[in-house]
Amino acid sequence: MPDTIAAVATGAQVAAIGILRLSGPKSHEIVNTLFRPTSGKQMLDYEDRKLVYGGLYDADGALLDLCMCTVSHAPGTYTGEDTAELQCHGSPILLQTALAECFRLGARQARAGEFTKRAFLNGRMDLSAAEAVADLIDAESAESAKNAAGQLSGAITRKTEAVYELLTDISAHYHAVLDYPDEDIEDFRLESYKADLRRAEQSLDTLLGSFERGRLMTAGIPAAIVGRPNAGKSSLLNALLGYERAIVTDVPGTTRDTIEEKLRLGSLLLRLTDTAGIRDTADTVERLGVERSRLAMERAALVIDVLDGSAALSDEDLALLREAEKRPRTVLVVSKSDLGTVVKLPETCLPVVVLSARTGEGLGELEKVIRSLFPMPAVPAGEILTNARQAEAVSRALESLRAALSAMEEGRTPDIVLTESETAMAALGELSGRSVREDVTDRIFRRFCVGK
User: Fold this and answer.
1) Does 422 have pLDDT greater than 50?
2) What is the architecture of the domain spanning 5-110?
3) pLDDT value for 252
4) By CB neighbour count within 10 A (0-12 exposed, 13-18 middle, 19+ buried), where does 349 fall?
5) How far apart are CA 418 and CA 167, in angstroms?
6) Quick one: which of 423, 419, 394 has its CA closest to 407?
7) Nearest CA to 36 among 66, 16, 6?
8) CA distance readout (Å), 20 to 102, 312, 386, 449
9) For 205-251, how does the pLDDT look when each residue is reduced to its tens digit (9 = 90+)?
10) Which of 13, 18, 135, 235 is placed for a possible disulfide with 148 were both Cys, Cβ 3.0 to 4.6 Å?
11) Phi then psi for 112, rounded to 5 degrees?
12) How far apart are CA 328 and CA 300, in angstroms?
């Protein structure tokens, strides 16, 4: 029988409400001892999930709080075990005192993610849905939250389960014919499964193709603001953020290191990096800053190349522009339009936005252009892969599925096709948690907060 765990689920900060959660066989017994409903009944006399008002007491019978309590019975709970919650006033001292009373009565401190891990182990959710819980908690954009909610409802599982079931049917048919040759079983013909396998391949390929968007959606799009000194990079950063994050002066080379801040543009989350002005310099410190600027530019998924529109184009501007054109996604910004635009742009394939960080003119157009460079894929919410573990499992499944199709087209024996199909099934099993190793699940749940 598993032990009983308890944790404060609302963090250590002062808040209006603090929640203490318990899960395990002694959960109901513990809250029945600590909590007394004002009705005079015992907590276990109430129906499942009923929120009850009463007093919370310590071992000496001293009142700790007037709060709410609810109990839920296995198996229809979040963890699949008996659970209970105390909804108290949000004093950290009060919550820690109540938690200590739970420990005194036989509970132990829950480890990070242990409630959700128990939900997974007890079959209340698969592994991809469990990972979505952490993604939903950590979501920093509406798009990320919607996708996590879709995964929590089983979108990834539904997408891959059809492929898994197809491969299971193929394997079962093959082995049935092989093991029971005298039975009236339809002959096993690989060709009859070819069209289904092609559709399965397309489904997994689409799913895997969503990973880049999912990674950028959850971690944020690394965006580097580059340009020569005094081009208006820091002013642009401040204007986009809406406050003075970077120091702005008329002296070229004020920014000597990279400055990173997060910015939400509609459904997009940008990790904006303001870089040191890129130029040849003898100054040791500035040269280090320039090197970091170039590194930020190489790593960025989006480059914002800033030109001073109030001055003539320099050789440094032109060299940086040609370098920026090689990046997958670059926007050319002509800044300082409030001072008059005199720069003559060379021919370029890049989208160009003329703006003034001082007046805000053109900032809306810049946001529009950036959003157009990262269009939302036409897939339902929840069907975007968001972490490397998921993507790696789908990639291996897709590789084996393609190998099975190749073996089929080459006329190789059915056992070769079946071997690849079963390898694909094993990879998909890791995605849902059917066949995942214990060390992998431990690593996954360590990213959760305590109390979840």
Assistant:
1) yes
2) 2-Layer Sandwich (3.30)
3) 46
4) exposed
5) 9
6) 419
7) 66
8) 10, 64, 30, 14
9) 999 988 888 888 888 888 888 888 888 888 888 888 876 654 444 44
10) 135
11) -55, 125
12) 9
- The rounded mean pLDDT for the chain is 83
Q: What is the pLDDT of residue 244?
A: 62
CA-based nearest residue to 389, from 452, 449, 443, 450: 443
Q: What's the token pair of residue 122?
A: 């007890």
Q: Which residues pair with 19 in a beta bridge?
A: 87
Paired sense of beta strands 302-308 and 330-335, if any: parallel
Within 13 Å, how many C-alpha atoms sit on residue 28's CB side? Answer: 15
Q: What is the CB-side half-sphere exposure of residue 408 using CA atoms within 13 A?
A: 23
Query: What's the rounded Cα separation, in Å, for the pair 365 and 322?
Result: 23
The CATH number of the domain covering residues in 217-373: 3.40.50.300
Two tokens at 449?
């907060």
> What's the full length of the chain, in residues?
452
Tell me how far apart the alpha carbons of residues 310 and 354 are, in angstroms, rounded to a whole number: 11
CA dist list (Å): 224 to 160, 361, 439 = 36, 21, 37
Position 286 confidence tier, pLDDT thresholds 50, 70, 90 = very low
Q: Which residues pair with 35 in a beta bridge?
A: 56
Residue identified by tokens 């059809």 is 162
Residue 187 tokens, joined:
């002959």
- Residues 366, 370, 376: CA angle, nearest 5 degrees: 145
pLDDT at position 92 is: 94
- Other Cβ atoms closer than 10 A to 322: 11
Structural domain boundaries of the chain? 5-110, 217-373
CA quadruple 244, 227, 264, 444: dihedral sign? negative
217, 218, 223, 373, 391 from 213: Cα distances, Å: 6, 9, 15, 12, 12
> What digits encode the pLDDT tens for the residues 313-340?
888 888 888 888 888 899 998 888 888 8
* Type of residue found at 293: S
| DSSP assignment string, 47-66 | PTT--EEEEEE-TTS-EEEE
Work out the average pLDDT over 104-118.
Answer: 93
Residue 232 to residues 95, 250, 281, 305, Cα–Cα distance (Å): 50, 10, 19, 10
Structural Rg of the chain based on CA atoms: 29
Half-sphere exposure of 400 (CA within 13 A, CB side): 21
Peptide bond into 75 cis (omega under 30): yes
**Alpha-carbon dihedral angle through residues 246, 250, 253, 258, given to the nearest 10 degrees:** 10
Task: Read off the pLDDT of each residue in 384-393 and give the average, rounded to a whole number.
Answer: 90
